[in-house]
Design goal:
Strand content of chain A: 35-45%
Structural class of chain B: mainly alpha
Structural class of chain A: mainly beta
Shape of chain B: elongated
Oligomer: heterodimer
Strand order of the largest sheet of chain A: 5-4-3-2-35
Largest sheet of chain B: none
Number of strands of chain A: 39
Largest interface: A-B, 58 and 64 residues
Distance between the termini of chain B: 25 Å
Number of helices of chain A: 6
Amino acid sequence: MKAILLAAAALAAAFWGVAAGRDAAAPIHFAYRPIDFKLDSSETPQRHAPETMAGGVALFDYNNDGNLDIFFANGADIRTLKKTSAKYSNRLFQGDGKGNFKDVTEQAGLAGSGFDNGVAIGDYDNDGYEDIFLAGVHGNRLYHNNGNGTFTDVTHRAGLDQPDSQYGPLWSVGAAWVDVNNDGLLDLFVVNYLAWDVNHEPSCEAAPGRLDYCHPKLYKPTPNQLFLNNGDGSFRDVSAESGIRANPGKGMGVGVADYDLDGWMDIFVTNDKLYNSLFHNKGGGKFEEVAFETGVALAQSGQFISGMGVDFKDIDNDGYPDIVFVALDNETFPLFRNIGKRGFVDITQTSGMTGLSAAMAGYSPTVADFDNDGWKDIFVTRGHVQSLGYAFRVQVEQPNTVFRNLGGAKFAALTAEAGLTAQPPARHRGSAVGDLNGDGRLDVVATALSTPAELWINDSPGGNHWIAFQLQGTKSNRDGIGARIKLVAGGAAQYNQVSFAAGYASSSAGPTHFGLGPNKSAELVEIRWPSGIVQELSNVSADRVVKVKEP
Amino acid sequence: MRSVLVLLAAVCVWAATDPKAAAEAEKALALAREGKYELAVTHYRAAIALDPHLPGIDLNLGLAYFKLNRFPEAAAAFERATKADPSSFQAQALLGMSYFGSRRFDAAAVHLKLASDQQPDNLELRYKLAQSYLWSKQVQAATEEFRLLLAKNPDSGPVHMLLGEVLDAAHQEEQATAEFEAAVRASPSEPEVHFGLGYMYWKQKRYEDARREFQAELVKQPQDSQALAFLGDTEMHAGDQKPAADHLRQALKLDPRLRLAHLDLGIVLAVSGDAPGAESHFREAIRLDPSRPDAHYHLGRLWSSLGREKDAEAEFAKVKELGNQEQQPPLITMPGHNGEPKL
C-alpha cells in the first residue's frame, strides 16, 4: 500500500474562499420520455476507437415554426465508414412545441452517408434558416437548409471535403460556428481527435483475451481546423495562418466565448489525456494559444486527464465566461472560474465538485439554469469510454446527473433526486438543452451508445419565472452568436454569451434562456452585438421568448 | 500485519555414513538451538562438504539462513531439501517463506500453495499465501484466498485489511473501502489499518474522511512519514496551509523521497509567497519522477505569477513535451484506456 506514495502525484489545491451556500429547497427534477432513436456506432469485438465516441445531438428550429426540433448524428459500418444499413441513419425529429416529435428525416434529406460523430448548428449564409454541419470520421458534411423543410449537401461546394495535406482524412468529433473576425459571417471551427485508421489500429486488452478501447496515448494527435466564411457559400481553410494548426491535440470538446471581453470570440478545446487548448483571438484573424498562461491547460492535479465535453458560460454571474468540462472517474469534473484579465482559477475543490464528481465518468456537460433561480446549473451525461466488458473494473454505464448551482460558488449533485434514475444507467454521450414543450423550463435530450436516446422533460417545482431571447443579427451574424447579453432582474445581474456549441459533439441552438427567480420582469436587458452595437431593453416582462433584431 | 508464521522446527535425523559429518551436523544443531546461527551455518556447511547427502542437512541449513534473514541462501537450501523429499511439508512451507522473504512472490505462492494443500487448516500459512498472491498481482487467487480466510476468521482486522488491498488492486474501490472500514471496526489499534482506510478515502477524494483516518494512524505511529504526507495533502486540499506545511515538512524530514510531499509543499509555499522554497520542492519532485507533468506545471504557474514568463514558458514546454511523447503501441497492450496508474 504505502509504496504507492513515492510515485504518487499530488492534487494541487485551489485556494478560493468559499462563498456561502443556499438552502436547496427547490430541487431540479426531470421526467423521462422516450424518443425513437437508437445510436448505433457499429460496436465490434475489435473495439475500434470511433465506436465509443459517437453520439452528437442538436436542438434547433429547422423550419422556423418556433418549436425546437431534434437532430441525431449516427454512426456507420466501422470498416467502410458507410451507412450500409438504415440503423445508421441520422435522424431529424420535428417538434410540435408540446414535447411530441415526428421523424422527418427522409423528407429533409438528412439520412446521411458516413460515420457522423458531432453536430453543429448555425445559419452560415444568414438566410434565416439554420444549417447543419456534421463532424465525422474521415469525412465532414455541410447541409444547407433550403427553407422548405429540405436540406442540400453542399460540402463540396463549400470546400469542406478536402483531406488534410499532412494527416490525410481526419476524425472530426465536433465543431462550433463562431464569427471569429466579426464580419457578420459565421466561421467554422472543427475539433479533430486522433489519427486513426481501422487497418492500423493497436489492439488493447482490458483482461487476458478481452479487447477494449485503447488509451489515446497510443494514437498520434491531429490539428484542429478553422474555416473562414467567404460569404459566397464557400470557406477558406485558415488553420495555419490563424495559428490554430500549430497546436495539434486530441480534441474532444469545444466551447466558444469571449473570455476576456475584448470583443473577439475565443475558443477552448479539451484534449483527451493531454493539456487543453485556449485559443485567444487577437483579432485580425490571428489566435494565440494561452491555456498555460491563463491556468486552464491542466486541472488542479497537474496531470493529463481525459478531457471530454465542455461548456464555456458564466456560472457565477460576474459577466466573465467560466469553463466547465468533464473527464473520467477519479479525474473529477474541473471548473475554471474566470477572474478577468488575470486568467482562470481552478475552483473544482472549493465548489465541492471534486467530491461530487470523483467517482463519475462524464461526457457532455451543458450549463443552463434548470430551476430558473438565476444561477446556471450543469447537466452532465455520464458513462465510461470503455466497453461493457470493462464493467468488472469500472462503472461503465452510469445515470446522468445535474449539478445544482448553489449561488455561484458551490454545487450539489442531483441524480436519483432529480429523477434521472428513471432510466437504467447507460453509456451516455451527447446532450442538448432547450425548452421542448414551451413551459419555460429547460429540457435535455441525451444520447447513449447502443440504447435509445432519452428526453428529460424538466418538471422542476417552484414556479420561478424566466425569459429567453431569440436574437436576429443584421450587421452581426444572423444567429447573434457572440452577442453578450446582460440581464438585470430584482437588482441582480446575469450574463450570457450566445453560443450554440455546448457539451460533447452537440449543439443547443434554442433561444438564450435566463431564469428570473421570483421576478416577473427584467429591469434591464443589454445586448452587445458582435458588430459593436449596444442595444438596451427596459422592463421586459417575463415568461416568454423575446425576439430581438439588431438595430 | 507483520510476520505471523511460527517457524517450524527442523527435524534432526542424522543417518550419516561419515562420522565426522555427523559430528559437524550435531555441533551445528547445538549452536542453532542456542541461537548462534552464523556459527551453525559454518558447521552445517562443513558437514555438507564431508557428506552432501546427509539426510535433513539442507533443511537445517536453510532454517539457519532463514533465521539470519538470508532468504536467497535459505531458499537455495530449501530447494535442495524439496528435491530430496518433495512430500516434505516443512521444506515446501519454508521454501515458500524464503521466497516470500526474498520478495519473490510468484515463487512463494507456488510453494506456499503446495504446503497449504497438505495442511489446509494452517491459517497462518494461508495468510502468507494470500499475501503472495496479492503482491504477485494474482488478484483473483488472492481474493479467493482472503475470502476463505475471512470465512474462518470473520473478526480478523488484518484479513479484512488485506482483502481490502486485494479489492483495491482489482479496482473495486467500493468493496475495498468496505473491507478497510471493517478492518478498522475489528482491529482499530492494528498498525496501518487507519492508514489503509484513509488511503481509500483519499483515492476517492473524500479528503475530510481521509484526514480523520490519517490523524488516527498518527496517534499510533507518530513517525509514519506517509501518513504525515497524506495528512498534509488532505489539509492542503482543505485550504489549511499552516498544518499542511508542518506535516509535509515532518514527512520529508523522515523520508526525503516522498514526491507527493515535495509537490504539495511546493504548492503550499508558492501560495504563501515563498518562491525559492516552492521552487526547491518542485525541482525535487521533478528529480524524483521526471516523467510527470505536475511539478513542471506548478513551477511554470509560479514563474508566471511572478512575471518570469521565459522561465514559465520553459516549464510549460516540458509539460507539452511530456504530453506529446509518442508511445509505440505493442500489438497487445494491457490494460486499456483507463488502466494506467491514476496517481
